């Protein structure tokens, strides 16, 4: 048995010294020191030894165990040192090299214009309200005084999902939803994406953004609408900006108007941006039609209101002097980095 222990010791030491990975050390440990290892098998065979031989053999087994554990630990430390040195050599950092510059993103010009616009109206006490892009025909058309056979539907030809569900053509649908709730007075703007069957060109897109405004209460007049839009134009385009209302027709407002502002580039003198007129159209507006109020459950004899709709891309193009709407969606970094 002493000879067998010597052979086990020599074999184990040779394997330990020749191992080249921590995994192999673990295998050696299990082979010789594990529950079913060679040393353990010798201990199990001690029951067949005489009482005088057992202590001697047991001592030698413990000596071999201690030796192998020491050898395993030393080899493991040696391997770890070698691995660490290799890793440090591999991951050496040259601090004299120039640093890497990481590109940082920023807000899109549309988002910048929207946040500036929202700040103006929030400052006037408006609440920002959003609604679904996939809308019922009832809210998108019917409650806005545009019945099934109305010619205005042709102007807003859109994408229908079913007969009664479509991609909204205007965020006025949010106004109809808010009025239907009957929580008066109302003072909101409703920004969001809308969809129309338009050809893509420098000023049109099948998907764009609107910011609609609505005020409903007692004693609301056209003068309130004019004052609101004056304040918006001065805050958004500059303090010298003037507004002009031109009569127009919209099914959901009466009377209705389109709004022009003095050209921000020539200040009303006339230039290529405003085509020599000194004015630029920016939005449509009007007093909420009494029938619209009535359909939404509001008494037009008691309450009145005004509404307006701003094309976000349009005011962004004007404010930042961009001549083609498609630039906003092409994700050209050379363009976006200017904002």
From TrEMBL:
<dbReference type="GO" id="GO:0016740">
    <property type="term" value="F:transferase activity"/>
</dbReference>
<dbReference type="InterPro" id="IPR006195">
    <property type="entry name" value="aa-tRNA-synth_II"/>
</dbReference>
<dbReference type="InterPro" id="IPR004188">
    <property type="entry name" value="Phe-tRNA_ligase_II_N"/>
</dbReference>
<dbReference type="InterPro" id="IPR045864">
    <property type="entry name" value="aa-tRNA-synth_II/BPL/LPL"/>
</dbReference>
<dbReference type="Pfam" id="PF02912">
    <property type="entry name" value="Phe_tRNA-synt_N"/>
</dbReference>
<comment type="subunit">
    <text>Tetramer of two alpha and two beta subunits.</text>
</comment>
<dbReference type="GO" id="GO:0005524">
    <property type="term" value="F:ATP binding"/>
</dbReference>
<dbReference type="GO" id="GO:0140096">
    <property type="term" value="F:catalytic activity, acting on a protein"/>
</dbReference>
<dbReference type="InterPro" id="IPR004529">
    <property type="entry name" value="Phe-tRNA-synth_IIc_asu"/>
</dbReference>
<dbReference type="Pfam" id="PF01409">
    <property type="entry name" value="tRNA-synt_2d"/>
</dbReference>
<dbReference type="GO" id="GO:0000049">
    <property type="term" value="F:tRNA binding"/>
</dbReference>
<keyword id="KW-0030">Aminoacyl-tRNA synthetase</keyword>
<dbReference type="GO" id="GO:0005737">
    <property type="term" value="C:cytoplasm"/>
</dbReference>
<dbReference type="InterPro" id="IPR010978">
    <property type="entry name" value="tRNA-bd_arm"/>
</dbReference>
<feature type="domain" description="Aminoacyl-transfer RNA synthetases class-II family profile">
    <location>
        <begin position="117"/>
        <end position="330"/>
    </location>
</feature>
<dbReference type="GO" id="GO:0006432">
    <property type="term" value="P:phenylalanyl-tRNA aminoacylation"/>
</dbReference>
<keyword id="KW-0460">Magnesium</keyword>
<dbReference type="InterPro" id="IPR022911">
    <property type="entry name" value="Phe_tRNA_ligase_alpha1_bac"/>
</dbReference>
<comment type="similarity">
    <text>Belongs to the class-II aminoacyl-tRNA synthetase family. Phe-tRNA synthetase alpha subunit type 1 subfamily.</text>
</comment>
<dbReference type="GO" id="GO:0004826">
    <property type="term" value="F:phenylalanine-tRNA ligase activity"/>
</dbReference>
<keyword id="KW-0479">Metal-binding</keyword>
<keyword id="KW-0963">Cytoplasm</keyword>
<keyword id="KW-0436">Ligase</keyword>
<keyword id="KW-0067">ATP-binding</keyword>
<keyword id="KW-0648">Protein biosynthesis</keyword>
<dbReference type="InterPro" id="IPR002319">
    <property type="entry name" value="Phenylalanyl-tRNA_Synthase"/>
</dbReference>
<dbReference type="GO" id="GO:0000287">
    <property type="term" value="F:magnesium ion binding"/>
</dbReference>
<protein>
    <recommendedName>
        <fullName>Phenylalanine--tRNA ligase alpha subunit</fullName>
        <ecNumber>6.1.1.20</ecNumber>
    </recommendedName>
</protein>
<feature type="binding site">
    <location>
        <position position="254"/>
    </location>
    <ligand>
        <name>Mg(2+)</name>
    </ligand>
</feature>
<keyword id="KW-0547">Nucleotide-binding</keyword>
């Amino acid at each position: 048995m002493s000879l067998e222990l010597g052979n086990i010791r020599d074999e184990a030491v040779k394997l330990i010294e020749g191992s080249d990975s921590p995994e192999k050390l673990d295998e050696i440990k299990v082979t010789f020191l594990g529950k079913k290892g060679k040393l353990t098998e010798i201990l199990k065979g001690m029951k067949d030894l005489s009482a005088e031989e057992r202590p001697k053999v047991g001592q030698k087994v413990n000596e071999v165990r201690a030796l192998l554990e020491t050898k395993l630990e030393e080899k493991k430390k040696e391997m770890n040192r070698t691995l660490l040195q290799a890793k440090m050599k591999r991951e050496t950092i040259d601090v004299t090299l120039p640093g890497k510059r990481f590109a940082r993103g920023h807000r899109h010009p549309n988002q910048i214009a929207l946040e500036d616009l929202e700040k103006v109206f929030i400052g006037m006490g408006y609440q920002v309200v959003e609604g679904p892009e996939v809308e019922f025909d009832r809210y998108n058309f019917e409650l806005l005084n545009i019945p099934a056979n109305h010619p205005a539907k042709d102007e807003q030809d859109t994408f229908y999902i079913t007969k009664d569900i479509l991609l909204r053509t205007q965020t006025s649908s949010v106004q109809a939803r808010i009025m239907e709730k009957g929580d008066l007075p109302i003072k909101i703007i409703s920004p969001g994406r809308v969809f129309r069957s338009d050809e893509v060109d420098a000023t049109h897109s099948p998907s764009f953004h609107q910011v609609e405004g609505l005020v409903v209460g007692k004693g609301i007049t056209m003068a309130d609408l004019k004052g609101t839009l004056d304040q918006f134009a001065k805050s958004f385009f500059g303090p010298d900006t003037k507004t002009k209302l031109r009569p127009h027709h919209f099914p959901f407002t009466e009377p209705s108007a389109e709004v022009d502002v003095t050209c921000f580039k020539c200040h009303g003198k006339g230039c290529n941006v405003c085509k020599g007129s000194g004015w630029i159209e920016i939005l449509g507006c009007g007093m909420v039609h009494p029938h619209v109020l009535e359909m939404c459950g509001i008494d037009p004899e008691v309450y009145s209101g005004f509404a307006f709709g701003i094309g976000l891309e349009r005011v962004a193009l004007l404010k930042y002097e961009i001549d083609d709407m498609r630039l906003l969606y092409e994700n050209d970094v050379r363009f976006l980095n200017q904002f």
